[in-house]
Amino acid sequence: MTKIRCAIYVRISEEDRIKKELTSLENQEIYARDFIAEHENWVALEKIYCDDGYTGGNTKRPALRALLKDVEAGRIYNIIVYKYERLTRAPADYFFMSSVFQPHNVSVISVTEHFDITTPDGEFMMNNKMALAQYERSMTRDRVKRKIATSRKLGIWTGGTLPPGFKTVDRKLMTDEILAPFIRFMFKRFVETSSQTVVAKELNTKAALELSEGEAQRLKLFNKIRVALLLKNPMYKGYISQDGTLYKGKHEAIVEEALWDQVHDILRQSPLKAPPERHPFDFALTSRIRCQECNKAMVATLGKCKHKKYQYYTCLNKNKGMNCKGLDMNIDS
What is the C-alpha separation between 290 and 18, in angstroms, rounded? Predict the structure, then answer.
C-alpha cells in the first residue's frame, strides 16, 4: 500500500503566546499526529515544520519556505495544520500557496476545521475566513494606533527607543540621574561651541573618565549625527511629539526650555548638511588605509581653504568626533 507522506506545519506568533489564544506548538503537533494516525496509509514525516514566534500575516517564515521547497521537490502529499490560519492569515498569501500546491496535488488539511478547501464550498469558506481575519487585524491595528495617538496627546510616553538620560519605572518615564548630566552637558556645550563634532568628542571623553563600563554602554558612543538627532528630541524639554505636534509630557524635563530654544536657534542658522556626492574613483583608498594610532579605517574628507577645495583622508574616529590619539594625523589625497 502506498504511503501518503504528511508534513506537519505548526506556528505560533509572539502575540498568540502573550494572549494565550491558541494551543502551544507541542499541542498542535500532538493533534496533527493523532489525526494522521487515524488514517491507515498516512505517515508523518520525521521533520516538523515549525515557525516559533512568526506572524501569519506574511510568508517571511523559515519553516514555511522550507515546506514550500519540499512541496516543489515532490516530497509531500498532505500538509496537516491545527487550523488553516496557522498556515496563513493573508488572502493573497493563501492564493500564492495554492498556486504552489495545486500542480503537485498537495492538500492542506486542518485538524479542527472540517471542510475541504479543494471543493467550491470549502474554498468559499476559506476565503471568508481569510477576509475576516484580515479585517480583524486591520481593526486591531487601527485601535492600537488611535490609542497611541490619544496617549501621546495626553503627554504619556508609549514606548519605543529610550533616549539616553531617561529610564522606565513601572512603565513610566523617569530621569536617569546618572546619564542625565551628560545630556545637559551636551546642550550647554553646543550653545558654547555650535559644533556637533566638538560636543561628540567631549562627551566621549567625559564618559570614558566618569562612567563605569556598563554605564558607558547604556550611554553609547556619540558622533556628530547622533548629537544632532538628540538635540532635536523634544522629550528632553518635557514634551511628547505626535504627528509633528508637541504636547506637554507627564515626565520631567532634563533641560530647561530656554536652553532648548537657544540650541534650536543655532540649529536653524546652521543646520547639519548632508555630505556631498562623491565620484567612486575620487577616493580609491577609502577604508584601505588605517589609522596608525587606533587602527580605524581612514575615510575620505573634503575641505575648503580660501575658496580652494582639497581632499584628504582622516581617521574614522576623528571624523565621527570620537577619541583617537592621532587626531591631527591626516593624509593628503
Answer: 49
- Distance (Å, rounded) from C-alpha 297 to C-alpha 290? 4
pLDDT in tens, the chain (333 residues): 678 999 999 999 877 776 655 568 989 999 999 999 999 899 999 999 999 989 888 899 999 999 999 999 999 999 999 988 898 888 888 888 988 998 999 989 999 987 767 677 877 887 787 778 778 878 888 998 999 999 999 999 888 889 999 999 988 899 999 999 999 999 999 999 999 989 999 999 999 999 998 998 889 889 889 999 999 999 999 999 998 899 999 999 999 999 999 999 999 887 655 555 554 445 556 656 778 777 777 777 766 666 666 677 777 776 665 666 655 566 555
Q: What's the one-letter identity of residue 280?
A: P
**Contact indicator for 256, 268 with CB cutoff of 8 Å:** no
Q: How far apart are CA 185 and CA 182, in angstroms?
A: 5
Contact 183, 206 (CB under 8 A): no
The Cα-based distances of 324 to 94, 185, 237 in angstroms read 56, 21, 32
Outline where the chain has alpha helix (H): 14-19, 25-37, 62-72, 84-87, 91-101, 120-153, 180-193, 196-210, 213-219, 224-231, 257-269, 316-319
Please tell me the pTM assigned to this model.
0.57
